Amino acid sequence: MAQRRASRRRVETVASGVAELVPDPDRDTAFTLLLDGAPQSHVDLADPTYLQFEYIRRMAAAIDLVAAPGRPLRTLHLGGGALTLPRYLATTRPGSAQRVVEIDGPLVELVRRELPLPAQAGIRVRVGDAREAVEGMKDSGYDVIVLDVFAGARTPAHLASVEFARHLARVLAPDGWLIANVADGPPLKHARSQVATIRSVLPQACLVADAGVLRGRRFGNLVVLAGRTPPPVAELTRRAAGDWFPGRVETDLDRFAAGAVPVLDAVAVASPAPPAALFGNRK
User: Fold this and answer.
1) Does residue 199 have a pLDDT over 90?
2) How far apart are CA 113 and CA 224, in angstroms?
3) Does the model's pTM come out above 0.70?
4) What's the topology of domain 45-267?
5) Which stretches are transmembrane (predicted)?
6) How far from 211 is each of 101, 214, 233, 257, 271, CA to CA, in Å?
7) Is 214 helix (H, G, I), strand (E, B) or coil?
C-alpha cells in the first residue's frame, strides 16, 4: 500500500516553487498540495465536501450561511491552489458560476492534469494576477469573493491595501460577501491592519479563528467575513464551536483592530512569513 501511494506522488517545479501532490495515507482518493513544503490545499476527489484544513472549513461554513442552502452563487476565487473550495461549492450549490484567478500557470496545469475537475462543474480558471483581474471586472458581478492568495506562504502587499479592497467591494453585489484568509501571528499587527482595511469598505464584519490565534498566542489563519449587512454570527458561532478543532467568532472588531488604520498602497506590506517549524510535521 505504501509503495502504491508513493508511486502516485507527483513533484514538479512550477512558477511559484516546487509543487508536490502527496497522497493522503488515510483517504485513497485524496491528495495534499504542498508548495515549497508548505501545505496549500487538500482535495478528496471522491468527496469534495471533505475539508481537511480547519480554516477552509471555516470559509466553507461562511459560504454555507450567506445564502439559502443550495442556491447557486456567482463566486470569484482569488488564489486557486488545488481548487478545494470551488469543488466544494460545485457540489453543495450546483449551478454556481465560479471564476478562479491563479497567477501560477504551471500549477494550474498540474492540478488540471492530476486532480481533474468534475464534468459540468461550472469552474473557469484564469491565469493572472488577482489585483489586475479584479480591476478589470464589472461592478456587482459576484455574490461571494474568496480571497486566499499566497506567494511563498505570504499574501502579497498589493493585495493588502485599501485601494484593492475598494475594487473588491465594487465587484461585489450589494448584498455580497468577502471571505478572506488572513495569516498572522503575535502580535497580530498585520491581521489588525487588514481588519481595518477591509472594514473601511465593507463595514459589517466578523472574524473566525482558533482562540489561541485570536489572542495572539500563536501563528495561524483568521477568516474575515465582511459585507454591507450583518453577518450570520449566531450560526457561525455554532459551526465554529462544533468543529473538529473548535474556533471562536469575534464580533468586536473595533477592539480587535486596536486603533489600526486602513493600509494604503504606498505603505502596504506582505503578510508575515510563518515560523520555519510550522509545517515541519505536515510534509
Assistant:
1) yes
2) 32
3) yes
4) Rossmann fold (3.40.50)
5) none
6) 31, 5, 16, 16, 20
7) helix
DSSP state of 160: S
- Segment 1-56, tens digit of pLDDT: 444 555 689 999 999 999 999 999 999 999 999 999 989 999 999 999 999 999 99
Distance CA 131, CA 154 (A): 15
What CA–CA distance (Å, rounded) separates 239 from 24? 25
Helix ranges (DSSP H) in the chain: 2-7, 54-65, 84-92, 105-114, 130-135, 162-171, 189-199, 211-214, 233-241, 253-257
Q: Which three cell numbers stand for residue 129?
A: 494576477
* 14 Rama class: left (phi>0) / alpha (psi -120 to 50) / beta: beta
CA 249 – CA 214 distance, rounded (Å): 9
d(Cα 219, Cα 221) in Å, to the nearest integer? 7
Determine phi and psi for 76, rounding to 5 degrees: -115, 125
